[in-house]
Design goal:
By secondary structure, the chain is mainly β. Helices cover about 0% and strands about 65% of the residues.
Amino acid sequence: MGSERRRYPRLVIPLDGTWTGASGAATCRIADISWGGCFIQTKAEPRIGERTEVTVAVGGQKVSVKGTVVHLDKPMGFSVQFDE
């Protein structure tokens, strides 16, 4: 048995986006996304617990969601848990 802890199924699809937090801002690639959060591929290293905003283009419209950095996977990127 795996140690899957996600509450929502994830969609593994590359999306171009941006993220902004106290440690900076950058363009990034979202590797997977769900209603609960996403994994952001970037060389940036925010702090765990840092508040961040993730923006992606969906159907020609920009969508922004706020959340908290919950995991770092150096040098691949980090995970964000979205606000409720």
